[in-house]
Design a protein that fits this description.
By secondary structure, this protein is mostly helical. The chain has helices spanning 19-36, 54-66, 73-116; strands at 5-6, 42-43. Among the domains are: 1-45, no CATH class; 89-119. The longest helix is centred in the C-terminal third of the chain and has 44 residues, at 73-116. The radius of gyration is 26 Å and the shape is flat.
Amino acid sequence: MSGNRIKAYRYIFGKEPKDQDVLDFVNKRLLKLIDTHKQCGIPIEKRHKKKINSKKLQRKVAKELKKRSISTKAQEALKDEFETSKKEKAENDKQLKEDKKAYIRKIKVQKAENKHRGR
């Protein structure tokens, strides 16, 4: 948690990590992992305690139960990070595809010019 935001990271140890492995990870590698990942996090919402009408509360609870929700803030943060990386990858793929089309077009034009000149 930094400032008013919660951040979550995922690290896979393997089958069953020993306590010492986890302790070494936390003491040595965790800060590097946090520094290398660009993650904005999820803002912490301050909740005001206010009495809500019982019928309104029932409707709100029923609505919440109908929609599928993420169970924890950590999962929500990981999902946001995944969506961000997914969008970046899509943009990169689109740019690569456009560059490839431009390159192929350039080669075709060059071949046509060479053919026209009798080379």
